[in-house]
Amino acid sequence: MIAAGNRPLIYYSTPEFGLGDSTTPKLGFLKLPVSNCSGKRFGLHSDEARSSFSVKAGEGSKVSYVNGKADLVRESYDSINHSDGKSICQMSTIGNSTDIVWHKCSVEKIDRQELLQQKGCVIWVTGLSGSGKSTLACALSRGLHSRGKLTYILDGDNVRHGLNHDLSFKAEDRAENIRRIGEVAKLFADAGVICIASLISPYRKDRDSCRSLLPEGDFIEVFMNVPLQVCEARDPKGLYKLARAGKIKGFTGIDDPYEPPLNSEIVLQQKGSVSASPCEMADTVISYLEEKGYLNA
């Protein structure tokens, strides 16, 4: 007998499946009360799910069977903990997604990092428009590439060409833009890739939310600390001119705030008219990655 919460899970070891000694079963049934798991989740009809349903799994098998239906529950028996009685079903509700289960794979982040000989992380480059974020991202990607390291750039404008093309520049859409990019960056880092996210990301709380998605140390914030007047003088896309003319509303630095980071890992600051070259700034970031061990598995 196995307990799952306050309800019993009855393990059946039966001769019909070629079992020998019932104390060392290789194949058997688990009978679960429906209140612990939704029968509908496993493709059961209402009459099948009224009271309970059975799960059968073979030793070492990756496939379980629910009421004789194959491939509906995968590795569900791995979720049972005989000592503390956790339920066989580890269902979650995340946002509007209900009854979802995280499927764990035997190839994990550490395996991918060993393959790539580097550690996955997110380098989040933030600053005003015209501060040199995209220029730094490309120089950094090139510098790491020349060292045999795999990177990918998530540029703010580039992502809006596809994944985020449905978002405007209103405050709520900018927050969603950052959230999506943060989640994608997290996936790249989990893949063992050094992900370079380059976007204004004006609001501190949104950047901090992205930081919270990753293990401590794996979110490296790079603040391009360039004065507004310098960025406006550069105006590489002509956006400041349009904003000053009132043709663009809610432009960061003009009529929408930029909240500078308080505790960035790296600050690249322009003092007066003196500015480091893109390669020099990239080398500063690469030195940080080397010091923290991200360029080795």
From TrEMBL:
GO biological process terms, semicolon-separated: cysteine biosynthetic process; hydrogen sulfide biosynthetic process; sulfate assimilation
Pathway: Sulfur metabolism; hydrogen sulfide biosynthesis; sulfite from sulfate: step 2/3
Pfam family, one: APS_kinase
Assigned keywords, A-Z: Amino-acid biosynthesis, ATP-binding, Cysteine biosynthesis, Kinase, Nucleotide-binding, Transferase
Gene Ontology CC: cytoplasm
Family matches, as InterPro entries: APS (IPR002891), APS_kinase_dom (IPR059117), P-loop_NTPase (IPR027417)
HAMAP family membership: Adenylyl_sulf_kinase (MF_00065)
Natural source organism: Actinidia rufa
Gene Ontology molecular function terms on file: adenylylsulfate kinase activity; ATP binding
Function of the protein: Catalyzes the synthesis of activated sulfate.
Family: Belongs to the APS kinase family.
Protein's name in the database: Adenylyl-sulfate kinase
Enzyme Commission number: 2.7.1.25
Domain APS kinase: 119-268
SUPFAM superfamilies, A to Z: P-loop containing nucleoside triphosphate hydrolases
Enzyme superclass (EC): transferase
Catalytic activity: adenosine 5'-phosphosulfate + ATP = 3'-phosphoadenylyl sulfate + ADP + H(+)
UniProt KW Kinase keyword: yes
